[in-house]
Amino acid sequence: MTILSQLNSPPVYAVCGGIVAFVAAVCVVFLVRAWRAGVALGMDKAKMRRVITSSVTFTVLPSVGILLGVIALSGSLGTPWPWLRLSVVGALHYETQVAQAAAEQVGMSALSAAEMTPRAFTTIALLMSVCIMWGMLLSTLFSKRYLKKLGGGGSSGGGAAGFGDRAMTAMFIGLICAYLGSYIGTFVSGGSFPFNGDWSPLAVAGVSALTMAGCVYLSEKKGLAWVESFSIAGSMLVGMAAAVLLRLWA
Known about the structure:
By secondary structure, the protein is mostly helical. Helices cover about 80% and strands about 0% of the residues.
C-alpha cells in the first residue's frame, strides 16, 4: 500500500470527517440559536431569510479558492488531511506555505507524493498544526483584555485597532516579498543576461496582482462592494489559468 493510499484510507477519512462533521454541527446550532434570538428581538423574518440567502450566495465563490487548495494539497497529503485543515482552522496561504517549507526541511525537493514518507507526512502535519494553534491559544488567554481596549474608546482603543491593522498589513507584505524574492532569485540564477531562469512565477504573480487590483478598483471606486467577496478566489483562478497558458505557450 502506497503512502497516498494510506492517507486516503477509510480510518483517516473517519477521523477527519468526524471533526469536520462536529464543527458543521456547531455551526448549525449557532445558526438556529441566532434565528431564535432574532425572532425574540422582533426582527423581520423576511429580512432574516434574505440575509441567510445572501450569505450563502456570497460564500460559494470565495470557497472555490479553498477547494482549489484542497485539490492542490491532496496530490501529496491525501484528501482527508487538507480537507480537515482548510475546513476548520487553516488558511489557504498558510497551509500551502507551511507544508512546502516543512517538506523542504525533511529533505524533499518538492511537496509531492513520489517523495512522501510516513515520517515526512507526520512532520508536515505536526508543523501545520502547531504553527497555527497559537492564534487560538492567545485568543483564549488575551482576547478579553484586548476587546476591553477596543471597546474602551479614546486613544487606547484606536491605538489597539490601528496596531492590529498595521501588523496584519506588514505580515502580508512580508509574505509577498518573500515569495517574490524567491521567484526573482530563481529567475536570476537561471543564467547570464538575459536571464534564462523560470520567469513564469513572476508573470503569474503579476497577472494575479492585476486581477486583485481590478477587483479593488471595482469595489472601492465603482461601488461594487460584492466584488470584494470574490477577489481572492477570482485572483487565484485567473492566476492558475495564466500559469497553464504560459506552460502551454512558453
